[in-house]
Amino acid sequence: MYRSFLSHHVHAPLHCFPSLTRCTATLSSTCITHNRHGSAALPWVSLVQFNFVQLCKIVMLLEALQRGCLPFLVDNRQVGLIRPDFWTHFKNYPDVFNLHEKSDGTKKYGVHLNEDCKNYKERTNAVNKVLEDLRAKDAVGALRGWRDENYSVKSNYTMEPLLEVERAASGLFGFLQYGVHINGFTRSPNGEMKMWIGRRSKTKQTFPDMFDNMCAGGLPAGMGIMDCARKECQEEASVSDKLLDRLKPVGCISYFYEDERGLQPESQYVFDLELPEDFTPVNADGEMGSFQLLTMNEMQAEIVGGNFKPNCAAICLDFLIRHGFFDFDSDPNIMFYIEQMHAPLQSMYK
After folding, report:
1. Quick check: is 278 in a domain?
2. Helix, strand, coil % in the chain, rounded to nearest 5
3. Per the domain annotation, does 63 fall within a domain?
4. pTM of the model
């Protein structure tokens, strides 16, 4: 289960950390109205538990530190946040990680990567050597999901990366993570929209056998966003290069949650891909077990039924809002939904 870290205060102080408290949201009921496509807007079920978006109280940094979370810094710049249960392991590697217990004008409070690691390669090698040792000892459960895929480490997307780290270890440090999600949809001659939904393989390391977007994946170190989106579409749904020229960037969502793997601040780049009615996705990498073509009402039912991987449910909710399947007057919570899918992660670490 997720513990939400979402903040609805866009102008909250940059040193705020949202609460670790588990929470859920409710989707209010709406009367059936007509959207701009001429079809009925979705009748959302009253008080449905939706385990993705709900405001928990904003917690100032002092409160987070009182719980024992430690800022993680590289070159005296915060790039992550380490839970105390993971610090009990990292502190056994003092040649790599040093705890500076008080800000003194030259170094900030927190766990610092050893300053002897002066460049990208040295930092990457030092951290991954620790992770490989912990993995060999089976000391940290999250590392059992080792991917042999690295993520870039930086405090915001525009910053030059300081190192790269094994994907499965990102949550141990609370590193910002990025990915791409593609809404593959069709439109019938009468204007009805349907969405291709994938069911994750039963052997997936995370959220097996749950509904997913047609294509999605993490953004590996050194890969561009559009290249990543095209790669995921080819690998997960066998989309042709010609159809991929229709990929349309439509926005981003961001959220911060916690699970047994650690702290997970994530931002997703979202694409819409309108597909011909005769297209059928075919998985090529073994990560999807099957695909289904759902109406908007069917997709809504699966969302509120809790059958989606939570962030994929949010991507679908974003699609429904953007394409006019909510009525502003009938559902007063639309602005709430939108706020909860846009946590200000790019300004969280300084």
Report:
1. yes
2. 25, 30, 45
3. no
4. 0.84
